Amino acid sequence: MLLARLFRDPSGGVAPLLALCLIPLVGAVGAAIDYSRAASARTAMQAAGDAAALMLSKQAGTLTADQLQQNASSFFLANFSNHPEAQNVQVNATYDKGTSGYIVTVTASATVHASFLGIMGISQIPITTTGTVNWSNAKLRVALVLDNTGSMSQSGKLTALKTAATNLLTQLQNAAQSNGDVYVSIIPFVKDVNAGSGNYQANWIDWSLWDAANGTCSKSTYTNKTNCTTNNGIWTPKNHNTWNGCVTDRDQNYDTVNNGPTSGALFPAEQYSACPASLMGLTYDWTSLNSKINSMVANGSTNQAIGLAWGWQSLTNAPLTVPPLDPNYQYRQIIILLTDGLNTQDRWYGNGSNASPQVDARQQILCNNINAAGVTLYAVQVNTDGSPTSTLLQNCAGSPNKYPDPSKFFLLTSSSQIITTFQQIGTALTQLHLSK
Asked: What is the largest CA-CA distance in the chain?
């Protein structure tokens, strides 16, 4: 026999060995090709599932089970249309509320035809993926405490701030699945804060300082109550409806806490000539919030502390209306403070021109209290003129269980960075966390 003679012939010994090795070698190469095609399809399937889960997360709370399934298939197939090698594609979506938040899961399965593995009895390679989006059931309450002092008119800072703030509002609005998921307050500040002139009849206002400085004397030479009465004149305060809405710091130590307006803790009215735009309490009226941002103008000296105090007050306590907390949810309270200058003046200290360490000291106590209350405080310093980096703002920036928190402090050297920084903060507040 020819084959037998070949095996007995030593000169032909390599050929049969090569023939024997060739079969598994070809099979291994073919298997590698088949599995490579399947792995490529699975990678694309994972990306399509992740994208579908992320898209569904933005609307899952408003969909029926059938709509959820239909949208999942549409989203998935739109991102997986270029992979005809995957056959028998099946997509399934679920939406669940867990103990710590919400979960959208998109699972997908398919088979990839095996061209080479068929000789080994394997005709199909199954592939499966799972894309999951988890997000917390925490609701956001955000206070924007924004510097409106005169220096904000320089280098385009106020213009950039308006753009940044409106962009941030859009991010927060888009993160809300339903009304009330996100509330925002806006606190423009200078030396004072404008609590709204329409509140002149409110019982939380202390009129003693205002009455002493705004009125007429029976002896027309004198323009304040002290001089008038000292010189035997009769002082008549103006009608409170002429108040421009500005309030100054509360009595110490109420200026560093968020107590409601009880006796001794009222808010002193002041007719500050550079009164900023009026503040806005917590709301999800996005149109009004944007209008408030656009109404801001730059004027006056810097008192970061009063802005922070009202920002904290807006999240937690009267006189502003604070929506009640739903015990079924967790709440994250956020203050974003942006300022371009050092503190120069408050009710007691400073002249409005030079940095005041006394104002800083009051603010540091306030920051300590805000952080101790579990409020996350972002501090953004816009430094376009080479001023010193604010140690105070670095020490104020904090988050629950970490105070100070360097990741919450931002030092900016150009106006354009205001826009990118607010976008970064907005992303941190609203980003959904994708898990595989």
From this structure: 142
Q: Determine what percent of the chain is predicted with pLDDT higher than 70.
A: 89
* Predicted pLDDT of residue 302: 97
3-state secondary structure string, 21-69? Answer: HHHHHHHHHHHHHHHHHHHHHHHHHHHHHHHHHHHHHCCHHHCCHHHHH
351 Cβ contact list (under 8 Å, min separation 6): 344, 345
Whether residues 239 and 338 share a domain: the answer is: yes
What is the distance of C-alpha 346 from the center of its chain? Answer: 29
Q: How far apart are CA 70 and CA 88, in angstroms?
A: 17
Asked whether residue 242 falls in the same domain as residue 390, the answer is yes
For residue 348, give its domain range.
Answer: 138-431
Clarify whether residues 28 and 159 are in a common domain.
no
pLDDT (0 to 100) of residue 436: 39
Tell me, yes or no, whether 408 lies in a domain.
yes
Torsion over CA: 144, 149, 154, 158 (sign) = positive
> pLDDT > 90: what percent of the chain?
69
Which pLDDT score, from 0 to 100, does residue 247 have? 98
Structure tokens at 152: 């904000």
Q: Would 7 be classed as within a structural domain?
A: no
User: Which of 113, 136, 159 corresponds to the end of one domain?
Assistant: 136
